[in-house]
Design a protein that fits this description.
It is an enzyme of class 4 (lyase). The protein has one domain: Transcriptional coactivator/pterin dehydratase (Gyrase A, domain 2). The chain is 42% helix and 22% strand. It has 3 helices and 4 strands, in the order H-E-E-H-E-E-H.
């Protein structure tokens, strides 16, 4: 299991567009079409399954919110940051 990152490590490692929300990191992605957001959420799900580290995904009409935390560690770890970078690669 990964160790929880310090506040400084989170700030330094957080990928572009992501922000901290308590013990999670989160980003909202905007789409022109609902089905584009659905396709994106599906692609995120595939990456998460490959990495066996699953986010919370909320789909709205033109927006998809992705949240990561490592429940077993009790906070944000390198695994969360790594997956956030991979999700950005899908966008």
């Amino acid at each position: 299991m990964s160790d929880v990152l310090s506040d400084e490590e989170i700030e330094r490692k957080l990928p572009e567009g992501w922000e901290r929300d308590g013990e999670e990191i989160t980003r909202r992605y905007t789409f022109d079409d609902y089905l584009d957001g659905i396709a994106f959420a599906s692609a995120v799900g595939e990456v998460a399954e490959e990495e066996f580290h699953h986010p919370e995904i909320r789909i709205d009409y033109e927006e998809v919110e992705v949240r990561f935390t490592t429940h077993e560690a009790g906070g944000i770890t390198d695994s969360d940051v790594r997956l956030a970078h991979l999700v950005n690669d899908e966008y």
